[in-house]
Amino acid sequence: MDSGRTFQGEALALLGRLKAKKEGIEDECKRRLEEVDAEIRAVSTTLRLLGESISVNHATSLDRKAAEIPVSELAGKSARVALIEIAKQNGGQVRIVEAKALLIAAGILRPSKNIWGAIYTTLKRSAEFEKVAGEAGTFKLLQEPRWASMPLPRGAKKDFLAHYILECGPQTRKDLLENAGLKPGTVATCLNDKTRFRQLGDGRWDVIKTGD
Predict the structure, then answer these.
(1) What is the tens place of the pLDDT at every residue in 151-174?
(2) Where in the chain is the domain with CATH 1.10.10?
(3) What is the mean pLDDT of residues 64-79?
(4) Three-state SS sequence of the chain
(5) In CATH terms, is domain 146-207 a member of 1.10.10?
(6) Whole-prediction pTM value?
(7) Which end of the chain is more exposed for a tag (fewer CB within 10 A), N or C?
């Protein structure tokens, strides 16, 4: 009995230490994100004071809004969802130059020589964005995604959802409900067709392709 009580006491003590360790890590992550937020604001302010930011008043206003987006609001999101959030808080537009720093700071992307191209490809392939003519690396958030205007013949909802996933990439059920423009019951019915859709190991849903 004494050995049992001793073991239980040790287990409870270990549990307490693990919880404390978890809280310490969470506090440290929060502190580091806040530090990065402050650094981004400081660098952006310095660039504006040095006159190195874009001289066009409208563009400068958008840059300022982008710099003020807290990195903590982007952490844990996919690149596409984070870019949508940046655009929403940035006057409906996203510039790759500013988005790059935010995505790296949030831990969504890693610094690399190809990161500009990776963000450009994500924006170009996303149904939620459209390239702004005449402005390099600038995209605007559409009021209605490109796929939303597609004709939807009767009984073609599965084809519609499959087309959306193929264009935008695998998504969680929550993302599909928020972005696909279909009713919850319709999404559920479509995903229940195991000959057309499959759930990946990370919880996202994808289209079953030939050879899968």
Answers:
(1) 555 557 788 788 778 877 888 898
(2) 146-207
(3) 72
(4) CHHHHHHHHHHHHHHHHHHHHHHHHHHHHHHHHHHHHHHHHHHHHHHHHHCCCCCCHHHHHHHHHHHCCCHHHCCCCCHHHHHHHHHHCCCCEEEHHHHHHHHHHCCCCCCCCCHHHHHHHHHHHCCCEEECCCCCCEEEECCCCHHHHCCCCCCCHHHHHHHHHHHHCCECHHHHHHHCCCCHHHHHHHHCCCCCEEECCCCCEEECCCCC
(5) yes
(6) 0.46
(7) N
